Amino acid sequence: MPRSVNSVASRARRKKILKQAKGFFGRRKNVWTVAKNAVDKAMLYAYRDRKTKKRNFRALWIARINAAARIHGMSYSQFMGKIKVNNIEMNRKVLADLAMNHPDAFKAVVDKIK
After folding, report:
1. Dihedral angle at the C-alpha atoms of 71, 77, 81, 83, nearest 10 degrees?
2. Global pTM value
3. 16 touches 32 (CB < 8 A)
4. Is the CA virtual torsion 105, 57, 91, 84 positive or negative?
5. Alpha-carbon separation of residue 42 from 6, 34, 69, 75 (angstroms)
6. Could you state, in order of their start, the residue ranges of all structural domains in the chain?
7. What percent of the chain has pLDDT over 70?
8. Alpha helices (H) in the chain, listed in sequence order
9. Can you name the CATH fold of 8-113?
């Protein structure tokens, strides 16, 4: 009995990986073994950095709120403590946006909690 090789499925698998490697530099885009490793690594980075992105944005929001709060004579921890005590339901993303783009609105929040 002759050996059966499912070349259709193999070709489809390779094409899928090479399509994902589009835009990569050098042999990473068109040599199967190199592209496979590059795509695997890229997927790993993508998965990992979806988690890291959330951390980075939270840190950015905290830095912006801290800077804006210090302009009004408070530290970040004092500001957030008073926000919680006064039951103001604003998350850090919204507060950071107010601090950056709407300083008058942020000042109104600060005046309300003082």
Report:
1. 40
2. 0.81
3. no
4. negative
5. 28, 12, 39, 40
6. 8-113
7. 100
8. 7-20, 32-71, 76-85, 92-101, 103-113
9. c-terminal domain of poly(a) binding protein (1.10.1900)
